[in-house]
Design goal:
The structure is a homodimer of 369-residue chains. Chain A is of the alpha/beta class and 369 residues long. In chain A, 48% of the residues lie in helices and 15% in strands. In chain A, strands 2-1-3-4-5-11 form a 6-stranded parallel sheet, with helices on both faces. In chain A, strands 7-6-8-9 form a 4-stranded parallel sheet, with helices on both faces. The longest helix of chain A is centred in the N-terminal third of the chain and has 25 residues, at 2-26. The N and C termini of chain A lie far apart (121 Å). Residues 1-28 of chain A have low confidence and may be disordered. Chain A binds a DNA duplex (30 and 30 nucleotides) through helix 2, helix 3 and helix 5.
Chain lengths: 369, 369
DNA sequence: CAATTTTTTGGAAACGCTTCCATTGAATAA
DNA sequence: TTATTCAATGGAAGCGTTTCCAAAAAATTG
């Protein structure tokens, strides 16, 4: 009799020790779980889950009790466990080339604004070379980290696009196009057309074009679109466009400067330069300054994009609706997530011509040789 | 006999139907799991797991076989399930106020570079008001979505800091300080001191200061630090600093412009203006242009931060090591994740004075009334 | 009041992985 | 040959949720 009592006590003591141990080991790392809440509130885990998710069919009194317990225990559901079952992560991914470039940042502004509205997290997949892009394109369809993907300014092959589709990952393309995915494109042909048309209307006849190169294979259509628009404008005026007036270089300041230098050192110097991006236009301005050429008196400069810098420096430009591209992209993406059977759409956005201080009619005394 | 055969066939057929059904229903959504691989490779799931994680103790031949199966089935482990157990998510979070502002973008450049090196994903928590900040500070410790947190330019209360610590979430602070967390701070007092000292050395005696306001309660020390540095410089020169030479306004272009307008319309106009940020300095430049005041002949302008725009516009400024702040922040964070018992450190970074085209010695014929 | 319907509730199963222990097979020692 | 050791392997348990079904409780009906 005594013996059995002692044995029970020993048992209890042992269990106590173990619990102490577990407790200590777990402390600080282990958060309260749904089971803790259920136990404390004296209900089942199902009920707690229903309360957390605001499901109907819980008696108000019970809901109260659970809510109180949750608050008291400072319980936060584990997002991972939650996503694992529900297949929803409450965060969306954005694949973006060189995400710190002004143009992309501007789009991200729109993205962020829209995401904040719907209260979702933002995961950024930065791409700075072809490998990384392909890596993401092949990896991301299977990743279960994001509910949807916004791809900015990155062309995607049909194979990859179909992969995404097949894997059930919602994708929206911005500033790029695929027949398999909802795409938001900007009519850059028309944008470029208007830029050059404006220059021609101002009376310029000798117009240089600083185009961007196709880096890796990013932005492949961008350079083309610009060129097509330019040709169309010249065509409208019944004017020929000399191919040697095009210089192609990096999509940045230095690229613009170098290209402009080439153009401006020719004996037959252009009276206007159209740059494929604002950053290149900044480079053109630098080149002009270096050669002591007055802008806009001796040289008109036209940019493209409409990033903030163009405003600061007073560069005339073609404004792309960058913010809107980002925000509409996200809202389209969310539409598609909520209704996965929706068919791909093609949305077109337009550009705006903004004239500032770098463009003017050409001077009478031109620098023709 | 016949009957039993038929019954078996029926059974088979039924199972076949079910499998078909499951297959169809799952197609496109359900990825291959570790079990599929194990079955196909004719090994146990444990072995597959060991192969995936590059654990030792798998016979080379077996490893080969599993690897081949993985490739053939195009199997990618489910990151969520994996993180749930291992408590590692392979992504880190960055809490940043107004992440599209140039200064923050610059830091994010460094962040991204470092993150790419260690191959981790980037989750951005953008903060644009106090509520959101507090929300993140109280929510994020329990979130299991990220392995660590980098907090940029955001002051954090001791309570929150301790919460993070206690929850076992690694945190590094950049451009902000807490005794409980590893912090990377920039010595902005000295930076500001050098800016003003430079102006004084150039001979300026009437110096206006465009300071930034404390938005919400972000950046609270920034404005102070600038002011302290300024006072110190004046002190060094044994000169008094008139409080009315300070105008405080938003940390942006418009804020700078408005503040400068006030300063420049005074009868006793300053010969130099020091702005607490480059964007404000841009505003100062705009104000000067509006009032037809030549820079730097009639007015010297000094910025602070060293964002790209300051280079484009040729603004003299105090360069903060933004890139480094981001990258060092991440590497510190990773150090801490790998060695959680590491004690908090305080790392100090320095600024550099960069003189460009907006500063000069004051003209003899000053505009004193 | 009993029978029936409806509302609440509890908790097992499942999600896809890692961890860990038991088991197998091979290699070595006696 | 048999006993002993060690490397390789299989798979159950468990992570913290949601989902779903059966059971209990409450409300309604005749």
């Amino acid at each position: 009799m005594l013996c059995s009592t002692i044995s029970v006590l020993l048992d209890l003591w042992k269990r106590f020790q173990t619990e102490q141990f577990n407790w200590k080991q777990r402390r600080g790392k282990m958060a309260t779980t749904i089971h803790d809440v259920a136990r404390a509130a004296e209900v089942g885990i199902g009920t707690v889950s229903r309360v957390i998710n605001n499901y109907p069919g819980v008696k108000p009194a019970t809901r109260e009790k659970v809510l109180a317990t949750i608050a008291q225990l400072n319980y936060k559901p584990n997002a991972l466990a939650r996503s694992m079952i529900s297949k929803r992560t409450n965060s969306i991914g954005v694949v973006v080339p060189f995400f710190t470039r002004p143009f992309n940042i501007e789009m991200l502004r729109g993205v962020e604004a829209e995401l904040a509205r719907v209260n979702k997290d933002l995961v950024i997949y930065n791409v700075d070379n072809d490998n990384k892009r392909d890596h993401y394109f092949s990896e991301l369809p299977m990743r279960d980290r994001v509910d949807g993907l916004l791809i900015l300014s990155l062309p995607i092959s049909d194979t990859y696009a179909q992969n995404f589709k097949q894997a059930g990952m919602q994708v929206v393309l911005v500033d790029s196009y695929s027949p398999y995915l909802t795409s938001l494109v900007v009519d850059n042909v028309t944008g470029s057309y208007h830029a050059v048309k404006f220059l021609l209307e101002q009376g310029h006849r000798s117009i240089g074009f600083v185009n961007g190169i196709t880096e890796g294979s990013f932005k492949f259509n961008q350079a083309n679109d610009r060129l097509i628009g330019l040709h169309r404008a010249f065509g409208d005026f019944g004017l020929p466009f000399e191919p040697e007036m095009v210089v192609t270089n990096e999509w940045n300041r230095q690229g613009g400067r170098e290209a402009a230098l080439k153009l401006l050192k020719r004996s037959y110097r252009p009276t206007a330069i159209f740059a494929a991006s604002d950053m290149q236009a900044v480079g053109v301005l630098e080149a002009a300054r270096a050669l002591d050429i007055q802008v806009p008196e001796e040289l008109s400069v036209m940019g493209y994009d409409g990033i903030e810098v163009s405003e600061l420096l007073g560069i005339s430009t073609i404004q792309q609706p960058m913010r809107q591209m980002g925000s509409s992209g996200i809202s389209k993406l969310i539409e598609h997530s909520e209704n996965p059977s929706k068919l791909p759409e093609l949305i077109r956005l337009d550009t705006t011509l903004i004239t500032r201080r770098t463009t003017a009619k050409p001077c009478a005394k031109d620098h023709h040789s």
